[in-house]
Amino acid sequence: MSHTFAAVGIALVVAIAINLIMMLMPKLLAPNKPVPEKLTPYEGGNVTIGRTWLGFKSNYFLYAIVFTAFDLETVFLFPWALSFRKLGTFAFIEMFIFIIILLVGFWYAWKEGALEWM
User: Fold this and answer.
1) What domains does the chain contain, in order, with CATH numbers?
2) pTM of the prediction?
3) pLDDT, position 75
4) Rounded mean pLDDT of 69-87?
5) Which pLDDT score is estimated for 48?
6) CA distances to 29, 81, 103 from 78, in Å
7) 22 pLDDT exceeds 90?
8) CA 98 – CA 80 distance, rounded (Å)
9) Torsion of CA 19, 22, 25, 27, to 10 degrees
10) Are 113 and 58 in contact, with CB atoms under 8 Å apart?
């Protein structure tokens, strides 16, 4: 049993080493010639006019988070639906409670305005 944990540890060390090597390679091998044009605010070299930091509406972020949460939670419904007949009454009651929790979360998100696009 310990040899499987050793394999996982070795795989973890190799994965971390590969990531570190891949992050250090550009620093060591890439040419570094800073030109004033490269240090401008944008890739095109255009200097900004007016405010450069614009406000970002948090509603878009909330909308995306709610969508992702409900999308991932509905993924749990598919395996349950495929093995519904084998699971029995206990699994039906648990899924009923799960759906009630989803509906309460949906109602709360709706009430708080997280589903409003604009």
Assistant:
1) 2-112 (1.20.58.1610)
2) 0.47
3) 85
4) 83
5) 67
6) 49, 5, 17
7) yes
8) 11
9) -70
10) no
